């Protein structure tokens, strides 16, 4: 029996399988590069989101709705702060607001509240009567 034709056919199949595996390895390398780039992009977007949300209270926003009234920044404390001003007649300090909202009177809470009140001044809802003293704009 002559094995040469069988061995030649086997060589052809081995060459085809080798070429296929080389092609697949090349594709895998390209996909791994694309995956690393996509993961890096995703990581950068997550960092950007964290940075933006961390700065949200510091970015002045003055948006007007169709009715012409100013919209509050998106944070649950802003309506609560304005509710305190609606219940009083005189000017208030950040510490007064913290007490009215049952926040602990820690410096970080007072400073965050003061920053929110200054943002309300920036968008035209409150006025700063004296440094650190705020009242509702008439």
Which range does the strand content fall in?
A: 5-15%
Distance, first to last CA: 108 Å
Report the sheet with the most strands, covering strand number, pairing sense and barrel closure: 3 strands, antiparallel
Overall mean pLDDT stands at: 86
Coiled coil: 21-48
Keywords: Coiled coil
Keywords:
4 helices; 3-stranded antiparallel β-sheet; mainly alpha; 138 residues
Would you kindly provide a written description of the structure presented here, covering whatever features stand out?
This protein is mainly alpha-helical and 138 residues long. The chain is 62% helix and 8% strand. It has a 3-stranded antiparallel β-sheet with strand order 1-3-2. Strand 2 (126-130) and strand 3 form a beta hairpin. The chain is rod-shaped. Residues 61-68 have low confidence and may be disordered. Residues 21-48 form a coiled coil. Keywords: Coiled coil.
What's the arrangement of secondary structure elements?
Blueprint (H helix, E strand, L loop, with lengths): L3 H52 L21 H10 L5 E2 H7 L6 H16 L3 E5 L2 E4 L2
Helix pairs in contact: 3-4
Concise description?
This protein is mainly alpha-helical and 138 residues long. The protein has 4 helices and 3 strands, in the order H-H-E-H-H-E-E.
